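[retry 2/3] Flp pilus assembly protein TadG: previous attempt timed out, resubmitting with same input.
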Amino acid sequence: MISRLIRRLRRRRDERGVVSTWTILMASGVFLVLLGLVYDGGNAMNQRIAAHRAAEQAARAAADEMRGVRDGTEGINQATATARANQILQQAGWSGTVNIDGLDVTVRVTGKSDNAFLNVLGFTSFPVDETGTATSITGPN
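[retry 2/3] Flp pilus assembly protein TadG: success.
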């Protein structure tokens, strides 16, 4: 009878710690996901803001480059405006497309924001796709 009781107690003791091990593993996983969402999500937001700023800057530069509209001596030079916008994007470290429609310039920046923590879970990056627009000034003032 006493030996039976001792065996029961040993079996119970053998299972001790299993729940705490699983709890630690689950908490570590949840912590990694939360850390990834905060860090990588914040980094993605910063990248999107930088891309939007670069798109707006490139659109303004391209609109400003269309000098023929201001002085009335030449037509709209789309090639020069597009080259200027692409130069601004390249200096900012982005790539994108430039679309000129009349006096309106639209710059679309595309790229990605690489993940540090969510990469472990298979999410290598977040896409970045931002647009900036500007309109060329039509008069001398």
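[retry 2/3] Flp pilus assembly protein TadG: The chain has one domain: 1-135.
[retry 2/3] clearing retry counter.
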